[in-house]
Amino acid sequence: MYDRKRRISVAVLVSWLALTACHPGPSRAEALDALKAATPGIDTTTVFARVWQDGPPWFSCAEVIAKLGSPVDSAAVRDQVGNWKPLVVAGWLVLRDTSKGVVSDPGWCTGKLENVSARLMGGWIPIVGDSFPTHALRRGWRVPVGTRRLTVTEAPKSAKAGEATVDYVATIASNPNGVAVGADRDTTFAVAELRQRDDGRWTVVATRPRIPERVRASAASPF
Q1: How confident is the model at residue 69 (pLDDT cuts 50, 70, 90)?
Q2: Average pLDDT, integer, range 197-212
Q3: 3-state class of 43 per DSSP?
Q4: 46: part of which helix (H) or strand (E)?
Q5: 195: three-class secondary structure by DSSP
Q6: What's the angle, vertex CA 74, arms to CA 111 and CA 53, rounded to 5?
Q7: CA-CA distances (angstroms) from residue 208 to 152, 168, 189?
Q8: H or E segment at 117?
Q9: What distance in Å separates the CA atoms of residue 124 and residue 83, rounded to the nearest whole number?
Q10: How buried is 111 (Cβ within 10 angstroms: 0-12 exposed, 13-18 middle, 19+ buried)?
């Protein structure tokens, strides 16, 4: 009985090796080369982040701080001024309520740079955005935060000759600005579909977002 099971296990292993040999996929290096070829200059092109000086209209600094860690009003607060938190922690930005408006209206929260000259020397570019309800233009900065970096997280998978998929992660190789605004924690998970060309090289034909298992499990947990 033991010999029979052993023969079956060996047969399964041989079949798996034969299947793998019939449909060899790309190596991690080949997959990474294909990803970089699909986005030329991705690891040398500067990535910019936007930092607003003026917060969401009618939100006081206390409200902004309270909502930064909450899903409530995420479009108005976290999506717009989410990088305020790491800047405040780094000591680059101080939050202050405006004094405009009547006593019952605190106006809204604004960010003041602690060292304007150092930030401008570091590449911060003043910008203006859409107008407020008061018709004043919203102020902010365009900030160089680093360059993108692609990492293949595991060996590509191939179930068909000349086709494969690979999981990869796009992160930011941050400069000091990027660390201060939290760009070094900006991670994108994705899957790329690869196809082998006649010359043997692999090329990207499509990509799609991927939700890591730990993030999916965290979202499913009620705690």
Answers
A1: confident
A2: 91
A3: coil
A4: strand 46-52
A5: strand
A6: 15
A7: 14, 10, 9
A8: helix 116-121
A9: 14
A10: buried
